Automatic annotation (TrEMBL), chain A:
Pfam families: DUF6814 (PF20664). InterPro entries: DUF6814 (IPR049211). It comes from the Bacteria. Keywords: Membrane, Transmembrane, Transmembrane helix. The chain crosses the membrane at residues 47-70. It comes from Pedobacter metabolipauper. This is Uncharacterized protein.
UniProtKB/TrEMBL annotation, chain B:
The chain crosses the membrane at residues 43-60, 66-88, 100-118, 124-144, 165-188, 200-219, 255-274, 294-315, 322-342, 423-450, 471-490, 496-514. It comes from the Bacteria. This is Putative MFS family arabinose efflux permease. Keywords: Cell membrane, Membrane, Transmembrane, Transmembrane helix, Transport. Gene3D superfamilies: MFS general substrate transporter like domains. GO terms for cellular component: plasma membrane. PANTHER family: MAJOR FACILITATOR SUPERFAMILY TRANSPORTER, SHIKIMATE TRANSPORTER. It is a multi-pass membrane protein. The keyword rRNA-binding does not apply. InterPro entries: MFS_dom, MFS_sugar_transport-like, MFS_trans_sf, Sugar_transporter_CS. It holds the Pfam family Sugar_tr. Residues 28-518 form the Major facilitator superfamily (MFS) profile domain. GO terms for molecular function: transmembrane transporter activity.
């Protein structure tokens, strides 16, 4: 039961990684665009660039984590 | 009779041996913790002095961008921490724990001392911020290498059934370093006065670091190598390429990912929300007075710090998982109500005339509006309330060049809010509660991470998820939460969705995938 849940959630993490990056890109375009139009000056390309630069590799890590979970790698941990 | 005597002698010798082991582990903890505490102190004074340093490093007319750039330099230190974990973790698994974290201590102390000596922008121009950025990057790298070494070193000296208790002393050092940095800054400022402190006194906390580091190096030089690493070395089993073994070996890499997503990611945001964002929120959003916001944090830290050891020791009995995850759950549930109280109790816009004890005669200033003939009139007055609270009220009007137009009044602003005693202690209680959650997630985590990986790649493997979780997810809490709160339509509480979301994700992953049992890498007793 628990192992089935671990595997099923693995698929969710695989989807969640790219979904987060897509969401961040959309936010970045919107907010930087607003900043250029002078609406919200606090959101600059540099700030959003840093956020994307940092979180893209982490999202890739989440996809790998999901893949391992889906393949059943976490069904049995060393301590079990 | 003879049998009795030898029994008593054996009992006495065994008692002495246990006593001597106890003394030895406390010496190890003392020596390791002192160095780590100093490294945290060095790392945090920069953030606590960002406003003043910004004014020294950038042109006088840079205004708010000086602070933002200084915060960016501060954040750079967090972002490079995982790289420090890789570089020094590899070194620690190759040449040993002792010499590696001796090196990180020297690098950290040296760069902190040099920041205190950097000339200002007016003397060397943009070389000043560039030099500070380089030194800050060295600080981040050194800290990335330090913590994993200290935690591993203590854990490898501790008996397996009490790792949570012994490593929890190392866990107190991050909060202790923050406490020390806030305390020394407030003390120095009160001793020499605000004006001198802004001009040159801010350098004192940086320069002082060299003395603290000197003492710590002397103590660490006398320490011995970890017994587990020594055993591994004598057996010729030291890893030849710890980076490759940690991250190209699937068995280890999947545990690195699990540690990051199931524990350190959530732990990092809980740590930095309770101890960093809380102070930033009180000072910048609620406009609480500089000293009051720091005293609230100092009291909260002082009351909560013993709980690192309590939860660390408890995790030896009931396991690490559920203590850490409960801390995350409580953060998710209570952050918004707590910060709503901060907002409500510092809202002075609805204070009625009956509540005001006295109000000073407003000081009126008039400044020209750039590129216009209009002017801006400000009326600043200090207000004291009957309950002992006080604040500064600023009324602002635009006076138009065209005489027929009437003045346009802008919303009043309030700053330098000093809290009444009951509200002050209520806030101390709320900060205490947030730091209590920090002790739940952070107290057992060193033991949890150490136990997740085998000795020969432990330094490298545990350092990376720790520093990505804390340095990246945690360290970016003030920056990202402030950014979210600046979106159109956002409320002052909107920024909290970042730590709440990350903690919730970590809670779900931790609940499903983590085990509450201790792994055994064949080293349970040494």
């Amino acid at each position: 039961m628990m192992n089935a849940l671990k595997k099923a959630m693995g698929l969710f993490w695989i989807v969640l990684g790219p979904a987060c990056i897509l969401f961040l890109f959309m936010q970045a375009f919107e907010k930087v665009g607003l900043a250029e139009a002078g609406v919200a000056k606090t959101n600059t390309a540099l700030q959003w660039g840093i956020i994307l630069f940092i979180f893209i590799p982490i999202a890739a890590g989440l996809v790998i984590f999901g893949y391992y979970a889906f393949k059943g790698e976490y069904d049995k941990l060393p301590e079990d | 009779m003879g049998i009795n005597c030898s029994f008593i002698k054996a009992k006495y010798e065994s008692g002495m041996r246990i006593e001597s082991q106890k003394n030895s582990i406390f010496k190890v903890i003392g020596a390791s913790s002192l160095g780590t505490l100093i490294e945290w102190y060095d790392f945090y004074i920069f953030g606590s002095l960002a406003t003043i340093i910004g004014a020294q490093l950038f042109p006088a007319d840079a205004g708010a961008s000086a602070l933002i750039n200084t915060l960016a330099i501060f954040a750079a230190g967090f972002i490079v921490r995982p790289f420090g974990a890789l570089v020094f973790g590899r070194l620690g698994d190759l040449i040993g724990r002792k010499y590696t974290f001796l090196l990180t201590l020297v690098l950290m102390g040296g760069s902190t001392f040099l920041i205190g000596l950097i000339p200002s922008y007016s003397s060397i121009g943009y070389a000043a911020p560039i030099l500070v950025l380089i030194l800050r990057l060295i600080q981040g790298l050194a800290l990335g290498g330090e913590y994993g070494g200290a935690a591993t070193y203590v854990a490898e000296h501790a008996p397996a059934n009490r790792r949570g208790f012994f490593t929890s002393w190392i866990q107190t050092t991050a909060t202790g370093g923050l406490f020390l940095s806030l305390g020394i800054i407030v003390l120095t400022k009160n001793l020499i006065g605000a004006e001198d402190f802004a001009a040159w006194g801010w350098r004192i906390p940086f320069l002082l670091s060299i003395l603290l580091v000197g003492v710590s190096i002397y103590i660490r030089m006398k320490m011995h190598e970890s017994p587990m690493f020594t055993k591994l070395k004598s057996e010729g089993k030291v890893s030849k390429n710890p980076l490759k073994e940690s991250f190209s070996n699937k068995t280890n890499f999947k545990m690195v990912l699990l540690a990051l997503f199931g524990a350190t990611m959530g732990q990092g945001v809980i740590w930095y929300t309770g101890q960093f964002y809380a102070q930033s929120f009180l000072e910048n959003t609620c406009k609480v007075d500089f000293n009051d916001s720091r005293y609230i944090l100092l009291w909260g830290i002082a009351f909560a710090t013993p709980f690192f050891v309590i939860f660390g020791a408890w995790s030896d009995k009931v396991g690490r998982k559920w203590i850490m995850l409960t801390g995350m759950l409580l953060g998710i549930v209570f952050y918004r109500p707590i910060y709503q109280v901060f907002l409500d109790d510092t809202d002075v816009s609805r204070v009625s005339q009956q509540d005001i004890k006295e109000s000073t005669v407003p000081v009126v200033t008039r400044t020209a509006v750039p590129k216009s003939l209009d002017s801006l009139i400000t009326r600043t007055s200090a207000v004291t309330l009957l309950n002992g609270a006080s604040y500064t009220r600023v009324e602002t009007y635009t006076r138009f060049a065209e005489r027929e137009k009437t003045d346009q009044r802008h919303p009043d602003t309030f700053k330098d809010k000093k809290l009444s005693a009951p509200v002050f202690w209520k806030f101390v209680g709320l900060i205490f509660f947030q730091i209590l959650l920090v002790t739940m997630v952070y107290g057992p985590i060193a033991a949890f991470l150490v136990e997740l990986f085998p000795t020969k790649i432990r330094y490298t493997s545990m350092s990376l998820p720790y520093h990505v979780g804390n340095g990246v997810f945690g360290g970016l809490v003030p920056f990202i939460a402030t950014l979210i709160a600046s979106f159109s339509g956002a409320t002052p509480l909107s920024g909290l969705w970042y730590p709440i979301g990350i903690a919730a994700l970590s809670l779900v992953i931790g609940t499903i995938y983590l085990s509450n049992k201790k792994p055994d890498h064949g080293e349970s007793d040494h």
